[in-house]
Design goal:
The protein has helices at 14-17, 25-54, 73-89, 95-103. By secondary structure, the protein is mostly helical. Helix 2 (25-54) packs antiparallel against helix 3 and helix 2 (25-54) runs antiparallel to helix 4. The protein is elongated and about 50 Å long.
């Protein structure tokens, strides 16, 4: 089989030319796949949070889930990103493993 054209060669990357140790393509692929899983899970968590926020009834101030506090939105996004990164580092959803299997030449 021919090599996957989507894999980035690190042999002549700016980092290797600056004296940095080149990273093996498989390590680069694994890191990229893990980051993709983290981004995907963070989006999923954010959408779930927005869905529960939509259930609130802020008109009378006594909604089923309580008033929305917009001051904590940034904190929630940060927490979602941290949880997503932790789950992705464990490859909890298997997304990174699937990407690696699909992108690795056989």
């Amino acid at each position: 089989m021919t090599p996957n054209p989507l894999l980035i060669s690190t042999a002549r990357s700016p980092l290797s030319e600056a004296g940095a140790t080149p990273v093996a393509p498989s390590a680069t692929l694994a890191a990229a796949a893990e980051q993709f899983e983290a981004i995907f899970v963070a989006q999923l968590l954010g959408e779930m949070r927005r869905a529960t926020a939509a259930l609130r009834d802020d008109r009378d101030g006594a909604g089923a889930l309580g008033q929305r506090d917009r001051t904590t939105d940034g904190l929630h996004e940060w927490a979602d990103a941290q949880v997503a990164q932790a789950l992705a580092s464990r490859r909890a959803f298997g997304i990174a493993d699937t990407i690696i299997r699909q992108m690795t030449p056989r």
